[in-house]
Amino acid sequence: MLDKFMCFSRVLIFALVAISFTGITSSMVFTADNASVKSMPNELLTIKLQQHTPYLQFDGQIEAIKAATVSAQTAGRILKLNYDVNDTVPAGAALLEITSKEQGAGLAAAEAELAQAQARNVEAQAQFKRYQELFPKGAISKGAMDEATANSASSLQAVSAANAKLIQAKETLNYTTVNAPFSGRVTERFVEQGETVTVGQALYAGYSTDNMRAIFQLPQQYRTLIDTNSAIDIEFASGMRINSTDINPYVFLQNTSQSFQVRINLPQTDIAISPGEWVKVLIADTAVNQIIIPSSAVFQRGDYTAVFRQHENKLVQTQVRLRQIDNEHFVVEAGLMEGDEIIVHAADYLLNSPKVGG
Question: How do residues 205-231 score in pLDDT, each as one tens digit?
Fold first, then answer.
């Protein structure tokens, strides 16, 4: 009997301890849940239609307004190349140098020819002046006077011709140093040092970094938007935007795409812009009434996008289709109606809520 009583007492003690532990645990969980409910964010936003100007988006590409290929204007062998591809070049800088012995000899010959023509002209003009004084006195014949007059005129023309050859020779000598037509960046180099070039051969290609524009194709149905918009936004891959008012749409359609090409000259900016870069062209459309919500109200998980909507005194997840306006706002294209109420801070609600209705 004593053994049975002791065994019963042990069982009773273990049962009381278990009941006490269970009660303590339940009390702790209940307290934690109450704390979560009390701190749960419940700020609601009533959905209203707002006037919003949507933007049509087109793919555009950057190109240089000023670009050129520099060619040789005289023949010779390349002595020195001063710049390579991707180098920046100031306006007027010497890109390369060509041998100048032949051109220098041509210049010396032109200078000598000019000096000879000038000497003959001095003699012809002096003779013509003397004959003008003697002819009225009958000291010389009419034929001699005519010959002196012709020599005077032809010697003047010879000086002019020799002077023109000298200018040409100087220019040819100058062509042995090829200068940059404008400041910019080198995109191609077609020759190597020591190579012999001929007149018209391509040497360098480059573009001006100061003058850029965006070009894009505009479908026919949106042609009137160009006329009604005085400014267009250009958005770069970095997210930066430039606003331009210098818009030049073509008045004729492109045959292949049946669309209008539009050129947008960009203003000077600190943003690094490169030809060939793809950009987004944003054109303001007609203002409409739309539902706009803050980005903080949106809950996203993968491709699933929702908000927490008040429905019959409880919050339920409501899937929505959105279009982003900027980093702070979305346009609701489907899923909400005017008058609906949604949680403003979806992330805080998820973190603090013990259970979300669905």
Answer: 999 988 899 999 999 888 888 888 888
What beta strand segments (E) does 171-231 contain?
Answer: 177-179, 184-189, 196-197, 202-207, 212-219
Q: CA 204, CA 141: separation in Å to the nearest integer?
A: 65
Cα 167–chain centre separation: 43
CA pair distance 209, 183, nearest whole angstrom: 7
The order of strands in the sheet holding 76-81 is 177-179, 94-98, 76-81, 196-197
Q: What is the mean pLDDT of residues 263-270?
A: 89
Burial (Cβ within 10 Å: 0-12, 13-18, ≥19) of residue 17: exposed
DSSP 290-329: EEEEEGGG-EEETTEEEEEEEETTEEEEEE-EEEE-SSSE
**Rounded distance between C-alpha atoms, residue 72 and residue 81, angstroms:** 13
d(CA 17, CA 263): 84
Q: How far is CA 66 from CA 49, 117, 233, 265, 318, in A?
A: 47, 44, 22, 11, 53
Comparison of pLDDT for 217 and 134, the residue scoring more? 217
What are all long-range contacts of 152-155, with beta carbons under 8 Å and residues at least 24 apart?
Answer: 152/124, 152/125, 152/127, 152/128, 154/124, 155/117, 155/120, 155/121, 155/123, 155/124, 155/125
CB 280 within 8 A of CB 60: yes
Burial of 279 (0-12, 13-18, 19+ CB in 10 A): buried
Highest mean pLDDT, choosing among 148-152, 185-189, 301-305: 185-189
Mean pLDDT along residues 10-23:
35
Q: What does the alpha-carbon distance between residue 198 and residue 188 come to, in Å, rounded to a whole number?
A: 18
Question: Please, which residues bridge with residue 265 across strands?
Answer: 213, 246
Confidence of residue 119 (pLDDT cuts 50, 70, 90): very high
